[in-house]
Amino acid sequence: MRLLLVEDDVMVASGIKLGLTDAGYAVDWVGSGERAEEVLKRGETFDAAIVDIGLPNMDGLELTRRLRKPDMASAAMPVLILTARDALHDRVQGLDLGADDYMLKPFELPELLARLRALLRRSQAATTAVLSFGPIELDTATRRAGARKGEQFTTIELGPREWTVMEYMLMNAPKPASKDKLLQALTGWDKEITPNAVEVYISRLRGKLEPHGVALRSIRGFGYRLEMIEAQVI
């Protein structure tokens, strides 16, 4: 999952970005509302944005209003507002302008991560922390992956980027996922990942999913799709 962090305080932004990156997100950081708007207008896509209200010049409320314009690609992107303002008026205004959630500073990282997971699930029309396809389950709250057969649960060990690819595939299943979208989910501006690297993670996942009856099929010229492996009749 790729996130846009809009925060002008370098120390605060660094702490948030580190925590989110450790949790497996690809995070791109900008220090102003103008820069965030510029990035989104040029076609960059994100799964969610975290926006501080107290930005210089264009504040977070005005940025949120602009992000919700119908002609913006970000019109449906989840937006989580961060602020030190605890007045009811500010919270109401932020939500009325299109924010999906609101957090007061200071806050604890586990709560921020939980709220982000909830926003991402809602944006992908998922209502549970457990994503699944066939026997495969991914618990986004406990960060546990595995395959379920009746009462038996077999853990599947996933590296951070394997987790990101698997999470994206499950959130989009049964629809296919494009290689470009997977590439964006895996990396931010400060990291270089090639399309060939996506194929490496797909290959690793195939080896972990196929023993449980799930395949990652390649769609020529597009990307990949999760499918159940048909049992062969002998």
Short summary of the structure?
The chain is an alpha/beta fold. It is built from 8 helices and 12 strands.
Description:
- This protein is an alpha/beta fold and 234 residues long.
- It folds into 2 domains: 2-123, 3-Layer(aba) Sandwich (Rossmann fold); 130-228, Winged helix-like DNA-binding domain superfamily/Winged helix DNA-binding domain (Arc Repressor Mutant, subunit A, Orthogonal Bundle).
- The protein is 38% helix and 24% strand.
- The strands form 3 sheets. It has a 5-stranded parallel β-sheet, with helices on both faces. Strands 6-7-8-9 form a 4-stranded antiparallel β-sheet, covered by helices on one side. A 3-stranded antiparallel β-sheet has the order 10-12-11.
- Helix 2 packs parallel to helix 3 and helix 6 packs across helix 8 (195-209).
- The N and C termini lie far apart (42 Å).
- The mean pLDDT is 87.
Task: Pick out its properties.
alpha/beta; 234 residues; 12 strands; single chain; 24% strand; 2 domains; 4-stranded antiparallel β-sheet; 8 helices; Rossmann fold; Arc Repressor Mutant, subunit A; 5-stranded parallel β-sheet
Fold blueprint:
Layout: E1 2-6, H1 10-22, E2 26-30, H2 33-41, E3 48-52, H3 60-67, E4 79-83, H4 88-96, E5 101-104, H5 109-123, E6 130-133, E7 136-139, E8 144-149, E9 152-155, H6 160-172, E10 177-178, H7 179-186, H8 195-209, E11 214-219, E12 223-228
Helix pairs in contact: 2-3, 6-8
